[in-house]
Design brief:
InterPro entries: ATPase_NBD (IPR043129), Hexokinase (IPR001312), Hexokinase_C (IPR022673), Hexokinase_N (IPR022672)
Number of helices: 20
Low-confidence stretches: 1-18, 31-51, 510-541
Catalytic activity: D-glucose + ATP = D-glucose 6-phosphate + ADP + H(+); D-fructose + ATP = D-fructose 6-phosphate + ADP + H(+); D-mannose + ATP = D-mannose 6-phosphate + ADP + H(+); a D-hexose + ATP = a D-hexose 6-phosphate + ADP + H(+)
Bound molecules: beta-D-glucopyranose
Protein name: Phosphotransferase
Pathway: Carbohydrate degradation; glycolysis; D-glyceraldehyde 3-phosphate and glycerone phosphate from D-glucose: step 1/4; Carbohydrate metabolism; hexose metabolism
Structural class: alpha/beta
Keywords: ATP-binding, Glycolysis, Kinase, Membrane, Nucleotide-binding, Transferase, Transmembrane, Transmembrane helix
Shape: globular
């Protein structure tokens, strides 16, 4: 514009009056440009915020977010790798080095809804521990009463004997309250123990490693059923553990009690894992009988997928950081990219990175380095915050503002909120797509036209988009001639342990065990609703 004015000024035809005005205009323009440039330098945040109006267009932010994106082609590649890892886990030649262990569970009879009886169940898988009394009434009807107990951090990382002693004490408390002690009845008990175990029978399982923040001493390589039974006997409790199941197996069994088309169990909670029904002839590591039914549930322990580096192509520096600062570095790589124990932490690390690159919270420089705020502390951004942020629709961001307030960012701008939501969405979407790809491998492998998947876990239940994102991705990856349905049943992992014990009795083995209670009707309370969200609240805390 100033160039045009200079040319105009050379024109002899211009009257002095016009020339004066033109000079004035030119000066104003030059001054204006200078003031604007100075303003941009002096107040870079305002300038950058304008770019942030469309976070998806901001190169630097998008570069970070892009590192989280996994294309369909990459997912297909990951599915192939998972299949290879599964074969390695199932073969006796490669099982030892395999990362995806594919443990046979000894659970072979799938319930058909006719199982009856009263069974106790213990459900240990995270910071909460639950004791249940389950009344299987046949016709797929279940009634239960239950109580949640907390596992203190000191017990999670303490001596293993204290852990089992604590479990027995909780069981004692529950049975006392429900008048089940000293009744002359030995109650059968199903134990849902949601950690990797090499099973040697239905009621015999050696822990191979701890996950999800547990590290009790003296338990790895030990038979956890034996440790539990010893603690139960020491307290003089009239209960006998007849079955141990992983939570994925419990979920599959509980769902199958209602829907016999169930062939897969999936957990998306503090940790993640899946199990499925496999033909015995594909299980090279199977070392028991080949009687009917010629099938066994395989506990995949897919959380360890990638522990040998095969997922490195999709890992980001944030995943590496989460892993390095965890209690089990190098282990549970797939789990650390998906599950609730780690999701909030991934988001926190990204936010912190953007803040350090001066791309976020620009109006909050005075609070930079306030290391006491949760934002700067490991675990300071809970996974439940990811769900809360993602429930915001529109431009008000009232939930996101509350969350940011909680982590120490007061009065965030619209752009701050939009960017934080964008990050949460990408992190949870990546997790849902990875879980969806894993599940697609199983659905395709089952070889039936209709497959029901029993799914449970706090992340799956409470995240507003996880299910939708996972289903969408599966629609592209599952073979076109296969129909799949995702089902969720309340209290599935505990009910499943009870159903497993009862299904085993139906098959004849251990029938005496359940018969001792089946004859004596026990009045169960109607379903006790204990805080459903308790586990979720505790994630990352
Ligand atoms: C454990 C699995 C469990 C999963 C979900 C993982 O950390 O290794 O055994 O099924 O968490 O609870």
């Amino acid at each position: 514009m100033s160039l045009n004015i200079a040319q105009i000024l050379q024109d002899d035809l211009i009257t002095p009056m016009v020339r004066k005005t033109a000079y004035g205009l030119a000066t104003t323009c030059i001054l204006g440009a200078a003031v604007y440039a100075g303003y941009c330098v002096a107040a870079p945040e305002k300038h950058i915020i304008r770019q942030h109006r469309h976070p998806e267009l901001n190169d630097q932010i998008e570069k970070v977010v892009d590192s989280l994106k996994i294309t369909d082609d990459q997912l297909i590649h990951i599915m192939h790798i998972l299949e290879e890892e599964m074969s390695a886990g199932l073969s006796p030649i490669t099982h030892k080095q395999a990362t995806v262990k594919m443990f046979p569970t000894y659970v072979r009879n799938i319930p058909n809804g006719t199982e009856v009886g009263q069974v106790l169940a213990l459900d240990l898988g995270g910071t909460n521990f639950r004791v249940l009394l389950i009344d299987l009434r046949g016709n797929a009807r279940v009634e239960l009463t239950s109580k949640i107990f907390v596992i203190p951090q000191s017990i999670m990382i303490g001596d293993g004997r204290h852990l089992f002693c604590h479990l027995a004490e909780c069981l004692y408390d529950f049975m006392l309250k429900e008048n089940l002690l000293r009744t002359g009845i030995c109650y059968p008990l199903g134990f849902t123990f949601s950690f990797p175990c090499r099973q040697e029978g239905l009621a015999s399982a050696r822990l191979t490693s701890w996950t999800k923040g547990f590290s009790c001493s003296g338990v790895v390589n030990e038979d956890v059923v034996k440790l539990l039974q010893e603690a139960i006997n020491e307290k003089g409790i009239n209960a006998k553990c007849v079955a141990l199941v992983n939570d994925t197996v419990g979920t599959l069994m509980a769902c199958a009690y209602k829907d016999p088309a169930t062939a897969i169990g999936l957990i998306l909670g503090t940790g993640t894992n899946a199990c499925y029904i496999e033909n015995l002839d594909k299980v090279g590591t199977w070392n028991s009988d080949y009687d009917e039914p010629k099938q066994v549930i395989i506990n995949m322990e897919w959380g360890a997928f990638g522990d040998n580096g095969r997922l490195n192509l999709i890992r980001t520096k944030y995943d590496e950081e989460v892993d390095l600062s965890s209690i089990n570095p190098g282990k549970q790589i797939f789990e650390k990219m998906i599950s609730g124990m780690y999701m909030g932490e991934i988001v926190r690390l990204i936010i912190l990175d953007l803040l350090q690159q001066e791309l976020l919270f620009l109006g909050h420089r005075d609070t930079y380095g306030d290391y006491k705020t949760p934002l700067y502390n490991r675990g300071g951004f809970y996974t439940k915050f990811v769900s809360t942020v993602e429930t915001d629709e529109g431009i008000k961001f009232s939930n996101t503002r509350r969350v940011l307030e909680d982590i120490g960012i007061h009065n965030p701008t619209y752009d701050d909120c939009a960017i934080v939501q964008h990050i949460c969405r990408q992190v949870s979407k990546r997790a849902a797509r990875l879980a969806g790809a894993g599940l697609a491998v199983l659905v395709n492998r089952i070889g039936k036209s209709d497959v029901t998947v029993g799914v449970d876990g706090s992340l799956y239940r409470y995240h507003p988009r996880f299910k939708r994102n996972m289903e969408r991705c599966m629609e592209t990856l599952v073979n076109k001639d296969v129909k799949f349905a995702l089902e969720t049943i309340p209290d599935a992992s505990g009910i499943g342990a009870a159903v497993t014990a009862a299904a085993e009795c139906r098959s004849g083995k251990g029938a005496a065990m359940v018969a001792c209670v089946a004859g004596k009707p026990y009045l169960v309370n109607s379903i006790v609703s204990d805080e459903e969200t308790a586990d979720y609240e505790k994630i990352n805390s």
